[in-house]
Structure formats: structure tokens, C-alpha cells
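Have a think about this chain, C-alpha cells included, and walk me through the fold.
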Amino acid sequence: MSVRIEKKGPVWTIIHSRSEARNAIDPESAKAIYNAFNEFNKDKTAHVAVLWGEGGAFCSGWDLKYASTLSGSDALEPYNFPDAGEPPMAVMGISRLELSKPVIAAVSGAAVAGGMEVAIWCDIRVMEETSYMGVYNRRWGIPLIDGGTVRLPRLIGEGRAMDLILTGRRVEADEALKIGLCEYVVPEGEARSKAETLAHTLAKFPQSSMLKDLKSVRSQHGLSIRDAMKQEWSGSKEEIVKGIKGALEFVNGKGRGGKFEDE
């Protein structure tokens, strides 16, 4: 099986293991990853997921050996958006999913083409210092179809996104950190452990308020400042009552000086 799940309390690590193909996504692995994240999202005991590619590569994109067997636009018919209702599974499996919980990408080696689109679908990215991203499909004449032209400009700004999308150039981890394409850079071999440590930190927080903030950030694109703030208020005001207990704990000395650990 190309995908497996390792669980440690509220943290699920979803592992893609097609090292012989540098973790390229074919229909079988797309479906397996899609099912794994749907399972994660529905499980009330699961709080944070880590996505990691086993064998030295995060994901090298769509499996071009499989793609080369397709003929004509009819081959992509199953992926078309319907006029109404939920969209079908994407070519890369998960890129159309809108989860209610956070996902952290643990990037080793290549996260290129569709693999880069999968990485920016995640909420936080941890890259190893030897890892890299890039719109490598540019050289083959294959466009971005899994959210790259949508999420990348929102993540790093339109100008930088245009540069990466049009040139298809390689982006090393240090540059990715500078331009906001990732949030952490760690030594080689440590992306998974850093991502899981971070996931356990997030899992310790009161979940309902954190998930309200997550939803607000994701859903404010395209709204005016006023409408976005109205949405933030209406979606989160009930959480303030719950947060009073936390405020009382702060008054009594917990969390002073930005300390988050349990005392």
C-alpha cells in the first residue's frame, strides 16, 4: 500500500510511500491520500495531521508515466467541477478538500509541480535545508491544475508567484523561508520530527477556538475588510465565553511571559 497512517494521540502522520517514483501521485495513491485525510477530518479524536513523503522526496508531482498513457480531454472528465455540489477528487487527490483541522507538510527532498501544490494546500510547511520546490511542470507544457495559481499568490504575493509559475525555477529551502513559501527550515532528515512536534503543540491548545481562527483565515479571501471582520466576529464570538476560563488562569499566573507549556 502506497499510503499509511501512523497515529500518536491526537496527531496523525499520513505517509506517502512510492519512493520508486519519488512519491509521484498516480490514481491509486491519490485515492488513498484522499481517503486518509477524509478519515482524519471525520475522527473526533484527531486534531492535527502531518503529511510526509517517505524515502527522501515529499512529492515529485503527477505521475508522468501514468499521464503519458492518457489520450484527449475526455481522460480528465472525472475531475471536472460540477455545476452544483461538492467537487470530485482532484488529480493530486487532496487539493480540493477543505478540511476543518490543520495540516502540516514535512518536506524532504523535492516538492515540485503537483507536489508543490500539495505542499501549499497544507497550512504550515516545514522544509529540510536540502529540500526544494518548483513549478517543474512548466518544462513539459503541463499547467497547474491543483490550486497552484490560486494558493501561491495568496501565500507569497502575486509578483513572486508569477516569477515561480512562469519560470518554473527551483526554489531552495532558504529562499522559500525568505519569501514565505515555508515557515520552518530544519537540518536534513528532521522535517518529520519537527512537524510532529509542532503538531503536538497545536493539539494541546483548546481546539474549538483554534479551529474558528483557522476557518476565518481560510475563508476571508475575496471579502472586504468589513465583511471579513463581520465574519470573524459572528463565527468566533461564542468562543470568547469559553475563553474566560483561560483568562482566569492567566490572571492566576499561568502562561505569563508567553509561556505555553503546561505547568
Residues 5 and 235 are 32 Å apart (CA to CA). The first strand starts at residue 3 and ends at 8. The chain has nine helices and nine strands. Residues 3-204 form a domain with the 2-enoyl-CoA Hydratase; Chain A, domain 1 fold (CATH 3.90.226.10).
